[in-house]
Amino acid sequence: MASVHITCAVILSLVGVVLSTCPSGDLSFGGKCYFFGKDIENERRGHDICKARGGQLASINSKAEDDAITQHIERLPLPYSIGGYLIGAQDEITEGTFVWEDGTSLTYSNWGPGQPDNYVSAEDCVTYYRPLGLLSHYQWADVNCDVAVEFYICETSITFSSIFGVLLLFQTTKSDKNISIIYAKNGDPVELSCRFTSPSTTHVWRGPKRLTTYSLDLVINEDLEQKDNILITMNITTGNYILRILNYGKDNEGLYQCESVVKGHLTIYKVEIKSAEEPILGIVNETGTGVILGNEGAKVTLECKAATVFPSVDLHWTTNGKILTSSQSYTFTPIRNDHKRIFTCIANNTFYETRRSIQLVLHYKPYEIDRGNIDQHIYEAELGKPCDVSIKVSSFPKPKPSWSTNAGGKLGVWGAEKDSEEIFTLFSTIVPEISSHLGRYNFVVRNNIGSLKHYIELKSTPVILTPPHAICNISSHIDLECAITLEEPPSGFSNMWLHQINGIKLRTFSGMTRENISILQISFCDYREAGDYVCKWITANKEFSSSARVTVHDQPVISKRSVTTTKDSVSLLLYFLSDPKPESIIWYQDDKVIATNDTRFTQLVRQSRIEHEIHMKNVKQKGFLTSLTIHNYDSDGSGLHVYSCQIQNAFGTMSAEFENTTNFYVKVSNQSGNVISKRIDTLSERSTEEVNLRNIQSSCSDYEKINSEYFRGMDLRSRDDELKNFVIVQSNFYEHPNKYEDLDGTKKDVHEYE
After folding, report:
1. For domain 369-460, which architecture applies?
2. pLDDT in tens, 714-737
């Protein structure tokens, strides 16, 4: 059976016609095309534009070429016919020696009068200009390369295809099966090229949509929508027929085809341009938003995944600019320094790079900080007196300290104070009673990740302060005696006393000093004398100290009064200090005792933190709060009352009043449900306002005997749980039962500071 060959014949009968490849409007001279462009920023911009067009800024090598360019410019319409044009000469490398862009020396020049002048030593480029205005011919002048020149001249080489009535028979070569695919990013330039064997061969570029004809040889189709966005060039040296897309966009996506005739055969090169996609990246195992949790010493795996995009992506993990792995997962064993470290997954497909970061939040075992002082765990202790010890640690989660060995002293309970999210001050107390109790005490700080083992070293202090705990009142005085027992002469030491409460420094004193002993006398004590007294012996380079605690027994002291309101009630709040603890608290309405079973009221007392001024410093201490809540009930219907409270302890009585002169009164409905009227001047509903103390009545000795009926016959002074039931208990049959909170009755009756 005979084989069948399918051929396609194309007859080109362009007899005696030479096709020039210079685009319309360009000047053709001496085998080159000259393009005259407008609007550039500087020489470098002109260079880039000409290069993108497949050429360079013009080089002029003869008077004939110079005259041809000048005549062409003068025939152009305004403003092209009067503007200055940048050409390719410059002397940036060697001042005064001008060369063309390809590095060749000038064989011809046409400088204007006084040119080149290198004005202010900053003119390295060359422009065409009219030195004497419109009536003069164009000449050359040197200019600043960074100054905008309105116009420029590009040159490219001309190729010709001569067709003299030749009948060409093209045999198609089947090449559809191999279509190259490339990717491009919006806004980027794209270059496509196909090979040719001879510049005399006819070449055609086609492209989207439907393989529209883009160019014949170097001539661009004038009807093409994309004509201003493409350039067609030939590189004779490499044998490439090139299509350049200056600014790629979605409209340029699709199939492109280059056709050329090689030895009578039609050769087709096909390439498809696809838009590159930006990777969509996610971290697979993040515990929370931007966070992954881990434990010190336990393996952690970081994993990221990119959605399928084109072209495909490469994934790698980095931290602090260092590449950890070139894959989508990274497994490692973290150490404490990795806590809160940022790890970044990077997806790159050449065109786009996408990053996602995650922070490692690490649970780590406790470790000690602030180790600048090597003796920070050595404490000077006095026998029979508490020695406060502490250590600062960093731990996540919160640490739990405990003693592990004991040198014989009495050990206190460990406490932890949170300084910041992960910094804690751990503190406790050791009481050495005999000299053998001095020495090393080991302790362990743990969390659920691990532990820190450490120690406290006790050594004797040369300062002895007696008594270590003194008690006084308004009718007594105390002497604190401080002795330094060093062998060196005490004359080299100075002495001072410091009074403080809860670490707040209140006053300094000079005691009565005799040789190695200093005595501080405190007389007629009231609550302002309570606190810690530190005795210091000081030289130029040494300091020794010891402290004693002074407890003051005094009558109750009112710290603050306030009134709070709600829609249905008014509460009178009284904050006070009392050491010893109060024995009785009685509320009055118009000097009449408010009975415990009066359902119009609710009475409450509890321990509370109070703040008051001592020696011009604000001090927070543990105190008490008593309150009276007045419900919407008024037995006599008058609506205007004076309320007062009387507080008694073993050393005196204190009273405080709430009345209309302090802008407070209550007018409420009676039991029949008449209109409710209530007023608290300057106070709105659910508001709180401080009420200034109006009057304080006190007695240190002759105080009114409190009727024990109001306390159910309790002798609060004689029992360890003296405040446990220090609340008036209401019957469950009443509509408004009293509310109360138990006080901590387990603590000893001593004055305590935080």
Report:
1. Sandwich (2.60)
2. 333 333 343 333 333 333 333 333
The CATH superfamily holding the domain 555-718 is: Immunoglobulins (2.60.40.10)
CATH 2.60.40.10 fits 281-365, yes or no: yes
Is the pLDDT higher at 573 or at 687?
573
Residue 36 near residue 153 (C-beta atoms within 8 A): yes
**What percentage of residues in the chain have a pLDDT greater than 90?**
43
Query: How far is Cα of residue 531 from the mean position of the Cα atoms in its chain?
Result: 43
Between strands 85-90 and 151-157, the pairing is parallel
User: What is the pLDDT confidence band of residue 66, given thresholds at 50, 70 and 90?
Assistant: very high
- CB distance 490 to 484 below 8 Å: yes
Tokens at residue 45, please? 């911009």
**Chain-centroid distance, C-alpha 77:** 61
Residues with Cβ within 8 Å of residue 665, at least 6 apart in sequence = 639, 640, 641, 659, 679, 680
Segments making up each domain of the chain, as ranges: 22-157, 160-275, 281-365, 369-460, 555-718
Which range scores top for mean pLDDT: 389-393, 640-644, 705-709? 389-393
Fold topology of 160-275: Immunoglobulin-like (2.60.40)
Helix spans in 36-130 (H): 43-52, 63-75
User: CA 73, 79, 82, 87 torsion: positive or negative?
Assistant: negative
Three-state SS for 565?
A: strand
How far CA 178 is from CA of 210, 272, 646, 665, in Å, comes to 18, 11, 104, 98
Q: Which of 701, 728, 729, 574 is nearest to 644 (CA)?
A: 574
Equal CATH topology for 22-157 and 281-365: no
pLDDT, tens digit (0-9, with 9 covering 90-100), for 191-200? 998 887 666 5
Residue 255 CA, distance from chain mean position: 49
Count of CB atoms situated within 10 Å of the CB of 170: 17
**pLDDT, averaged across the chain:** 78
Compute the average pLDDT of residues 504-520: 91
Whether 265 has a pLDDT exceeding 60, the answer reads yes
CA distance 681 to 639: 15
Q: What pTM does this model have? A: 0.44
- What is the spatial distance between Cα 610 and Cα 753, in angstroms, rounded to a whole number? 12
Radius of gyration of the chain (CA): 49
Burial class of residue 538 (count of CB atoms within 10 Å of its CB; 0-12, 13-18, 19+) = middle
The third-level CATH classification (topology) of the domain covering 22-157 is Mannose-Binding Protein A; Chain A (3.10.100)
The token duo for 330 is 């990274």
| More confident site: 742 or 257 | 257
Quick: pLDDT tens for 661-705.
334 443 333 333 333 333 333 332 222 333 333 333 333 333 333
Q: How many Å separate Cα 205 from the centre of its chain?
A: 55
Q: In three state form, how does the secondary structure of 252-287 look?
A: HCEEEEEEEEECCEEEEEEEEEEECCCCCEEECCCC
CA dihedral angle for residue 28, residue 32, residue 33, residue 34, rounded to 10 degrees: -90
243, 226 contact by CB (below 8 A) = no
Contact 416, 371 (CB under 8 A): no
CA distance 612 to 393: 33
* Closest C-alpha to 593, from 727, 707, 700, 701: 707
* CA 319-320-322 angle, 5° bins: 65
Look at residues 428, 454, 426 and name the one whose alpha carbon lies nearest to residue 442. Answer: 454
User: Are 161 and 201 in contact, with CB atoms under 8 Å apart?
Assistant: yes
What is the C-alpha separation between 518 and 535, in angstroms, rounded? Answer: 8
**Closest residue by Cα to residue 351 from 251, 244, 274:** 274
Q: Are 736 and 690 in contact (CB under 8 A)?
A: no
Provide the pLDDT for residue 371: 60
Instruction: State the pLDDT at residue 665.
Output: 43
